[in-house]
Design brief:
By secondary structure, this protein is an alpha/beta fold. The protein is built from eleven helices and 17 strands. The strands form four sheets. The protein has an eight-stranded parallel barrel. Strands 13-14-15-17-16 form a five-stranded antiparallel beta sheet, covered by helices on one side. A two-stranded antiparallel ribbon has the order 4-5. It is globular.
């Protein structure tokens, strides 16, 4: 990409947005955690861009860039203000330019399920947006969250006005805003926050309107449990996510919450969970790997919120699984930069092997062992791996150890 002009849109409009999903060679970095707003985050990230590029990440997912009622960015108000608790518009622009120069795409966190009002309207609640761009009235807010719009097309995000996406004027304004983020500000990829809150058909319309190069949705619902015990069969859970992807016209990928939920129980001595009753991986990855964005933890499940954390003494087993398997893996900032330096290097080595062996989102998986203390698989017929404390190595002299660590090993040929 080299030196560019001041605009961000040169050449990008000619790229087919579906080509990256077809290629399947994405690796995403979640470039923040729940505490990042307390620091000069855009500057901190700018200093890490050379390492982010060296690791081989194709996209860096940033926190919500717009002004927000809460410092983390997830209660947006003025969508056209890029001065946030993470830093000023000037610092954000400098970060985006540096990422572009290093050929790392930038993912915007799109929070459009809800929006905090600036003025009281119908019912005496803050459901009007007077005095700021996109100065909507109460008809932009769903009737179930105190507005004069229609009822929600999804689940409510409680306590705040939820946006009524069925309104034509709302969708028109959102598409214009997304196009501004895409072509003026310079974000190439989108992550749709709280995607359960509104119909996937609107996500389809927004992707078609703004043409991000890559999109991923956060469709997070609870896995199936029997009391405290995770059910072995999570087919209905992964089907919900697949239905959402289908609803976007297959234009978006989705975070594979099913794989996370199963994997974090499996590493505790229940590795038999990693093979479903058809002999395939048990998450979205096993059914639709080209649309499955795998991850270990994020700012909600891990970090200081820790709503659903991966067991901390098994993190590298988790990465040894997702970075060698099909799907589109995501690495969490904390694990790469805040835990210990050896974890950074181990993750980087697994990413390097993935690229060298050309493992991609559609690579084949042949599960060899799925016992309580041992899981092993051959991926793409050119990599094999094991996790767990059970003893195992591949048969045949053509396999050589590429890397190993605590309770994991990877071989290549």
């Amino acid at each position: 990409m080299g030196n560019t002009n001041d605009g961000f849109d040169e050449g990008t409009q000619q790229i087919d947005p579906a080509s990256l999903v077809r290629s399947g060679r994405e690796i995403i970095l979640q470039a923040f955690n729940w505490e990042s707003n307390k620091y000069d985050w855009w500057t901190i990230l700018e200093n890490k861009v050379p390492d982010i590029a060296k690791c081989g990440f194709t996209s860096a997912w940033l926190p919500p860039p717009t002004q927000s009622f809460s410092p983390e960015g997830y209660l947006p108000q003025d969508l056209y203000s890029l001065n946030s608790s993470y830093g000023s518009e000037r610092l954000l622009t400098a970060l985006l330019h540096k990422l572009k120069k290093c050929e790392v795409r930038v993912m915007a966190d799109i929070v459009i399920n809800h929006r905090i009002g600036t003025a009281q309207g119908h019912g005496g609640i803050y459901n009007r947006y007077d005095g700021i761009p996109l100065s909507w009235d109460e008809h932009a807010v769903t009737s179930c969250t105190g507005g004069l719009g229609n009822s929600s097309s999804g689940d409510n995000f409680h306590g705040v006005p939820n946006i009524d996406h069925s309104q034509v004027f709302v969708r028109k304004d959102i598409i214009q805003w997304l196009k501004w983020l895409r072509y003026t500000v310079g974000f190439q990829d989108f992550r749709f926050d709280f995607a359960r809150g509104y119909s996937a058909k609107y996500v389809k319309e927004y992707i078609e309107g703004a043409k991000p190069l890559f999109s991923v949705g956060e469709f997070w619902s609870s896995c199936n449990y029997n009391g405290q015990q995770l059910d072995y069969n999570q087919d209905s859970h992964r089907q919900q996510i697949i239905n959402w992807i289908d609803g976007t016209g297959q234009l978006s990928t989705a975070f594979d919450f099913t794989t996370k939920g199963i994997l974090q129980e499996a590493v505790k001595g229940e590795l038999w969970r990693l093979k479903d009753n058809q002999g395939k991986p048990p998450g979205v990855m096993g059914w639709w790997p080209s649309r499955a964005v795998t991850f270990i933890d994020n700012h909600d499940t891990g970090s200081t919120q820790a709503h659903w954390p991966f067991p901390s003494n098994h993190i590298m087993e988790g990465y040894a699984y997702i970075l060698t398997h099909p799907g589109i893996p995501t690495v969490f900032f904390d694990h790469l930069y805040e835990w210990d330096h050896s974890m950074h290097d181990q993750i980087m080595k697994l990413m390097e092997i993935r690229k060298q062996q050309d493992i991609h989102s559609r690579s084949s998986v042949r599960i060899v062992e799925a016992q309580p203390n041992l899981y092993s698989a051959i991926v793409g017929e050119k990599l094999c791996m094991k996790i767990g404390d059970g003893s195992w190595c591949p048969a045949g002299r053509e396999w050589t150890v590429a890397t190993s660590g605590h309770r994991y090993a990877v071989w290549v040929k």
